[in-house]
Design brief:
Helix content of chain A: over 70%
Mean pLDDT of chain A: 85
Number of strands of chain A: 0
Radius of gyration of chain B: 29 Å
Largest interface: A-B, 26 and 42 residues
Shape of chain A: rod-shaped
Number of helices of chain B: 8
Mean pLDDT of chain B: 85
Low-confidence stretches of chain A: none
Distance between the termini of chain B: 21 Å
Order of helices and strands of chain B: HHHHHHHH
Oligomer: heterodimer
Number of strands of chain B: 0
Chain lengths: ~30, ~290
Amino acid sequence: EQILEAAKSITNAAGALISAATSAQKEIA
Amino acid sequence: MPVFHTKTIESILEPVAQQVSRLVILHEESADDGDLMPDLSKPVQIVKSAVDNLVNVGHETCSTSTDDLLRNEMPQVLVRVNQASALLIDAAQMLKYEPCSIKGRQMLIEGARYILQGISALLLTFDESEVRKIGIVCQHVLNHLAHVEKIETIEQLVDFVKVSVKNLTPILTRMSKEVDLRTTELTHVIHRQLLTRSLEQVKTLTPLLISSINVYVTSKHTGDNIFDSIHFYLALYIIIIVGGHCIVESIENRDYVINKMSDELGEIIRILQLTTIDDVLLNEFD
């Protein structure tokens, strides 16, 4: 289903965003 | 107990749910350290594009769907996802110019949480609509069963067999296929077991349904013919002493099969709508 694919794209993109934010914080920590 | 009730929803939400939790923990641990946040403009833009795409796909789904509940609920959920995306953009903007901003980080966390909640609501709305589709198929089978009780003559039975081969069999096959597929999708073991058990019951009862109507109609037909051919009081005596028992038994048998099938179909519809294990346990307890 297209809607599931679209939802997956968002969670993937949000995952990448959080990853970028957390990896920077982890390095500092 | 699994958090998400279907494997599809779990596969989409679980990874990002864990990442959001990690972001919250890291934020709490380093709240006062004044950590620098990298420029998040690009990843935030990717989220925004994905949200824009979802909004388009969501509205398209609404416009082609015949499910009124979905058409009503989906746009509201899309607004929530859009607002979450806007919050992330604001957070990234704030952090770009103030990389230490605590408020910027809080907005980022809130945006990520809202995205998670929005997508969760969207998937649930969509999933409930898919469940309703299976429920409609089950309801078709129930409607056919309601006709069965009205069959009184051989001609009606012949008609029913013709119609059932044409209509009921494909609907039963479709229902069985869709419920089977749904069963494999569920994460709750008890939901799966209950669905499988009820579906198996329906499959077992289906051939018995036709034969039970057959026996009933044949018994009744035999009784009617006796009335036509011999003296009324003699016929009555035969019906009461010899044939009456058979007719009553055949009615009971037919009604048992119909009621059992209806109960199992009702149970399938009920379990399909459950999303948490507590519902099942509560109902079982009742």
